[in-house]
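Hi, here's the filled form for the chain we discussed.

Project: internal
Contact: R.S.
Residues: 151
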Amino acid sequence: MSVGREMTGGEISPPAGRPRHGKADWLTGARITAVHGLFYRPEGRAGEPEAVEFVLEGGQSVLLTCASDHTLNITSGAWPRLPDWCVPAGQWQFEQLRHLPPPPYGGAWTVTGTQERRDEHGEVREAVLRCENGDFVVIGGDTVTIRFVPC
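And the returned structure, exactly as it came back:
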């Protein structure tokens, strides 16, 4: 994603990996075409992802990453490139999350709203992306937990 590129909803997106600022409904109207987990794989597949990347129609993406204090960092992604903090890059990889449903008919989930649940310090602990067919719920912790809750 390049600097100054406009995201759905009229907000200007920051460069890849930069925090997003502004209201919680920042993704409303976007179409999610894929959801990928970002895994640290020095010894093969195991556990939950360190981050989740939502790929949007038009080539943009949004990256939700667990922080050391169990909160979520929400930044612009750089799909299909790995974030700069994935060092050494050869030990990180994106994978489809098999427990999530495939996109609905039409090839994408349309975001109808978002909600951020914050801790006592104002940091995001949980992000909910509401879609026409259900909600993506992303929770920060030692790793990122993601689930899809159908309507």
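Let me know if anything looks off before we file it.
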